[in-house]
Structure to design on (600 residues):
């Protein structure tokens, strides 16, 4: 129900008539106490979590949710999957309406009501609704305004062919454009073309959706590889998957201009001079905290201009809380301050803020891990904790281990390889993990995220007791394997070298390839000595002679056979080190290092 276009909102003033005793954990509000007035700005993930929790804690509070858009409580994470057609019904994305929220939670939800200012002295917000401006008083104010899209410096972004994918209206516009392109496509003609700018999580989901709908897609990313948070040795797996689905990949370049007559096809010019034809363009290059309202009210801001909050989500004003994409968070591993525009933290913060506003027991905010996951056609990529790049820039000493186990028992049909990378502190503490694969990635990354939160070490991972039967895992689960490998690295049982050290290793060590002659023939490092691991014990003298006092840098395909070889050589007194992740990791990072295949 829209409020009267008067200033101020009379009902709000009555409710905002000052402070009152707050019922504590499970307490009953004193009879006759004025109802608390809670105002929430932003009615989606964080805001709606807070409003719903506040109602569950306080039956009598006056709770008003102000949302500038047309929809509340919609599933923004589901938007790409309606575009693809996987979520068939648009209504499935609209989890609630103001009416359903009034019915079930007695919330006063006002869509198309934009908060334009906060008067902290009078504890009022200024609102512009469909029927004009008004003011609304509060005892407790929650800011959940989310994020704003970063607008990249591309000429012609106002062309009608250019879209974004952030809101339900964005989705509707994209759906209409795609539908029209497909309907008007002459029989036998080439697929309509789209250019997606930005290969982050949402950009990749948009690519998948558009390809699924039958469009040809070019993907443009400024960073050197797709999904920039991913470690560089994993990203090529996604690039291959994209290429296998016909996606044209343009990394290390930016889009500079969109040109074309209105309502017709366009061309997208890239910074390297490439010109891509397109019928539609989707731009999603990241977000920044929507903290303008908070800044104008003089609330303290932190990293990236995000709203600074305490462990209970309270801002620098004791009557104002803030949650979600708009707030500053601390990264759990590096301690860096920043933002984490993800739905999980926003929802949990909303619940915490409501607890705090209602005087309930709170669970103080933990630093964030940034656990995230994305599907790219048949592959899944997931991250938790600090990436290698983040650890390097924070100056945190760490060892990186790479493994490529099967997601369940190799002898059970359907086993798929998981590519897992994890970083450990010298004392064994897990610092971060990433995984890419066709199955079982979500389970491993969630176990590792839990381990990170619990401060677990390599020893702990090695001892984790995880569910096992052949269709689900292995007696030594990939997570246990990570622990075993890290134990070996950290206690010196298996010294290792990294693919990133290749040039240095080639200059100062003998590279020993312990794969089979067939694998060697299909591609190897120039100058590497081939000694299959089964022949190793008989050829120690030959290896010692070839090394001529230099260390021996051993490798196989994945790191398993070369681990055995490393142990044999070290048992013979040779300074041998194993390539972390083997040929699979090396060739992902350094495809240029592979010598031409030879015939044997
Ligand atoms: P939002 O949910 O964005 O809500 C903020 C609301 O505040 C908006 O509706 C806005 O209109 C309103 N608002 C802003 N200013 C005002 C004002 N002055 N007055 C009134 N209203 C205002 N995260 C994941 O973890 N996993 C995913 O798979 C995932 N997929 C995503 C897919 C898409 C397409 C998008 C866009 C996001 C996705 N996210 C995902 C991110 C996730 O949706 C956000 O992190 C989360 O919604 C943030 O919650 P929030 O409450 O801070 O902001």
């Amino acid at each position: 129900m829209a409020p009267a276009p008067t200033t101020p909102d009379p009902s709000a003033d009555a409710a905002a008539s000052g402070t009152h005793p707050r019922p504590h954990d499970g307490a009953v509000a004193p009879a006759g106490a004025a109802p608390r007035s809670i105002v929430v700005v932003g009615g989606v993930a964080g805001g709606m979590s807070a409003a719903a929790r506040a109602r569950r804690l306080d039956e009598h509070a006056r709770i008003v949710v102000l949302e500038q858009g047309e929809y509340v409580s919609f599933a923004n994470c589901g938007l790409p999957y309606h575009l693809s057609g996987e979520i068939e019904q648009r209504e499935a994305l609209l989890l609630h309406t103001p009416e359903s929220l009034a019915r079930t939670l007695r919330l006063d939800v006002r869509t198309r009501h934009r908060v334009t200012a906060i008067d902290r002295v009078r504890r009022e917000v200024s609102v512009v609704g469909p029927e004009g401006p008004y003011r609304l008083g509060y005892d407790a104010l929650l800011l959940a305004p989310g994020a704003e899209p970063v607008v990249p410096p591309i000429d012609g972004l106002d062309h009608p062919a250019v879209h974004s994918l952030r809101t339900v209206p964005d989705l509707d516009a994209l759906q209409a454009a795609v539908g029209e392109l497909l309907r008007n496509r002459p029989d036998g003609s080439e697929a309509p073309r789209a250019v997606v700018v930005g290969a982050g999580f949402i950009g990749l989901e948009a690519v998948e959706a558009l390809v699924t709908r039958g469009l040809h897609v070019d993907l443009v990313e400024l960073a050197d590889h797709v999904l920039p948070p991913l470690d560089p040795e994993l990203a090529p797996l996604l690039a291959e998957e994209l290429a296998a689905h016909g996606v044209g990949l343009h990394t290390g370049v930016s889009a500079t201009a969109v040109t074309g007559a209105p309502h017709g096809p366009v061309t997208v010019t890239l910074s390297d001079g490439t010109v891509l034809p397109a019928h539609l363009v989707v731009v999603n290059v990241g977000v920044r905290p929507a903290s303008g309202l908070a800044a104008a009210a003089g609330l303290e801001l932190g990293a990236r201009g995000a709203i600074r909050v305490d462990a209970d989500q309270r801002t620098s004003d004791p009557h104002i809380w803030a949650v979600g994409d708009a707030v500053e968070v601390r990264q759990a591993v590096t301690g860096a301050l920043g933002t984490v525009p993800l739905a999980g933290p926003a929802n949990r913060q909303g619940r915490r803020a409501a607890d705090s506003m209602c005087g309930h027991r709170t669970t103080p905010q933990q630093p964030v891990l940034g656990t995230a996951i994305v599907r790219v056609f048949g592959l899944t990529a997931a991250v938790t904790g600090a990436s290698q790049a983040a650890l390097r820039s924070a100056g945190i000493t760490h060892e990186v281990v790479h493994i490529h186990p099967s997601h369940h028992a190799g002898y059970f049909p359907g086993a798929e390889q998981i590519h897992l990378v994890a970083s450990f502190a010298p004392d064994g503490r897990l610092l971060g993990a990433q995984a890419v694969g066709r199955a079982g990635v979500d389970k491993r990354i969630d176990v590792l995220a839990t381990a990170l939160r619990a401060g677990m070490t390599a020893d702990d991972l090695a001892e984790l007791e995880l569910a096992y039967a052949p269709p689900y895992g292995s007696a030594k689960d990939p997570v246990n394997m990570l622990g075993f490998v890290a134990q070996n690295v950290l206690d010196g049982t298996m010294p290792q070298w990294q693919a990133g050290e290749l040039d240095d290793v080639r200059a100062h060590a003998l590279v020993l390839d312990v794969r089979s002659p067939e694998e060697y023939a299909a591609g190897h490092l120039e100058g590497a000595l081939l000694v299959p691991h089964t022949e190793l014990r008989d050829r120690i003298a030959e290896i010692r002679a070839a090394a001529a006092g230099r260390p021996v840098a051993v490798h196989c395909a994945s790191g398993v056979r070369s681990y055995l070889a490393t142990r044999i050589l070290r048992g013979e007194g040779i300074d041998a080190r194993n390539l972390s992740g083997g040929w699979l990791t090396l060739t992902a990072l350094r495809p240029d290092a592979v010598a031409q295949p030879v015939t044997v």
Remarks:
- DSSP finds 18 helices and 32 strands in the chain.
- Residues 1-6, 10-27 have pLDDT under 50 and may be disordered.
